[in-house]
Design goal:
The complex is a heterodimer of chains A (291) and B (407). Chain A is built from 14 helices and no strands. The relative contact order of chain A is 0.13. Chain A is mainly α. Chain A has one domain: Orthogonal Bundle (MetI-like fold). The two termini of chain B are 34 Å apart. Helices cover 47% and strands 13% of the residues of chain B. In chain B, strands 3, 4, 7 and 13 form a four-stranded antiparallel β-sheet that branches. Chain B has a four-stranded mixed β-sheet with strand order 9-10-8-11. Chain B contains 17 helices and 14 strands. In chain B, α15 runs antiparallel to α16. The chains are: A mainly alpha (291), B alpha/beta (407).
Chain lengths: 291, 407
Amino acid sequence: MLRTSRFVPYLYLTPAALLLAFTFGYPLIAIFDFSVRRIRGASGPFVGLENYRQVLNDSVFHLSVAHNAQLLLAVPILLGIGLLLAILLYERPRFWPLYRTLLFLPYILAVPLIGVVFSNMLQLNGVINEILRAIGLRALALDWLGSAGLALWSVMGVIIWREVGFGMTLFLARLQSLNEEVTEAARIDGANWWQRAIYVTIPQLRGVIEFYIVVSIITMLAWVFSYVYVMTRGGPGNATIVIEMYLYNFAFRNALPGVASAVAVILFLFTLALTIPLFRLRAQALEEDRT
Amino acid sequence: MSWWGEQEAPGLENWLKGSIALFEKETGHKVIPTLQDTTVVVSEFQTASAANNAPDIQYLWNGIYHMESVWLGYVEPLNDWIPEELLKASNATSLSIFGGKQYRLGWYAVPYMWAYNKEMFDRAGLNADQPPKTWDEFLNACDRLKASGVIPVVGGLKDGPWGEWFLGHSLTQNLDSAGEAIDLFIGARDWRDPLHWEPWARLEALWKAGYLNDDLNSIDLYPGIDLFGAGKGAITIIVGPLVPKMQSLLGADKVGVMVMPVFGKGKMAGKPLADTQGLGISSQSKHKRIAADFLIFLNRPERVSALWEQVKQLPANANWDGSVITDPVIKQIWQEWMHGDNVPYVSNLMPTLFWTDAMFVNSQKIIAGEYNGEQAGQNAYEVTQKWIAQNPDMVEKYRQWATELKL
């Protein structure tokens, strides 16, 4: 047996560790550093927690947080629709590969492209409203993006339309790796479609569902900027501003990277605080499964 | 060289490439142009400067869009590099000067105006050769245009600039100088004074009277202006470079231009708004002499004439012979907006926080029915206080700038 020093494995790991430290560690440290300075250009004076104080006292930031929280409502919707579609496709109806492709298609389209198309379609005098008017549903032809009460729901609808394909594919892939005998046994025992889904199929998907919930929460908190930027720019009148958009405004428009960094740190810590318990729950569940 | 402009003046890129080829042939110095995206013109230059990697020549929008970079020490004053006569002739406007130094050289003209459809005016029984000058005349015109079956005023607010343009035209009306606009932005004047929230009250009145397109909040600036070009609206707010496009869509004889009708009592009310796009030199450039020579080269009479002949853009350079303009509307713009009794475009003095949190928000909330003029003024006041708290180091610079602009 080849004997090596116990330090050798660490030596092999060092290049990758250094690369990770540089690509993730350095920006993280820099953001924490920026967040306590009034940055002009590349540096600036230390201002303590002043940037945090300003952000936390800003009503626009509160609004952004509220909007991200509202977008979290999309998570159970995404989960429900994704599961339903996956289970329906798992039954292998006629042309199911075609349906699967069509339902996954939005997910491979670039967000800016989808944003531009939908922002045109959802205009007050856009295609959707023209169709509604043509079929006599004039009362439903609303100002989807121009009305403060509707705009965020419209953006959420577009997010769901695009993102649901990912969940569906994830669940379907897991379903296809399951032992079909269990489902078949339930069928023979007289379980109907609904009972099979609730008591047999979904419990076997627990792991992937938990993973999908975590990913979707992160998406709604930190990955919706492109939708908002392209579709509404945060308007009308801040009605769709989200934390990322607020951060972007300070970083790139208002030339205050210090304030933007404070927002980034808050967002980072909040997302971390939300996802760590979820991962812990997942680990706990795995442990229980083993025992 | 990093530049912008093809987006609003199609053909500029070819003109620039031709100019670079001629300059290289004459001097042997190479110029590499990089066309920038609209969203990064300011931030990219500041980031590159912070990293000590700025381009030698940078496209600079007027006013605060380059003045913050000046205050950060990223832009070279041009006075030591370019002859005083050319600096003056380039029409960079007073918003390019700080501490007695000029930081931009004007390139092409961007006058701000209101355009109207003469045919629609005729059909509504209005005198198309005498567009409304006062607010009452304007409301009367809107009333008659609406009665004739057309939308009186069209635009698009979703992306923001239409609100900026409207404020730029109307805010000046109760001010005596551009410096007074800065006073508002740094809290030396109060937005809660009805005199200063009047622009938003006027917008609210137009909306409530049904004089604006109903989808104003759901479409962007250019689709809004395109409604005018498509003959779906009688009046729009526009910039000079877009006028030829409207003429080609509607017919040259059907497009008229006018100053925003007057409601205010300030010295700047009723005067044409003049602005120019411009170029400057990075303070980090190791080739300042060559960069300056290139800017001077772009202002040679032959190059300035070519800008008009090839791109149909009005050159900023006052030495250009405007008598070659044959179109009466373009000639009117050249004479009245660029060389008449004009005033600077005060929206260029707006801190970006005011742009995102006050101007953008106020105009959209008024159209959404969430704000009235007074509430818009209150929000503008609060945003101003927020900006002051976040930018204590900038306030003094602004104050000095305000003093200079009042002289």
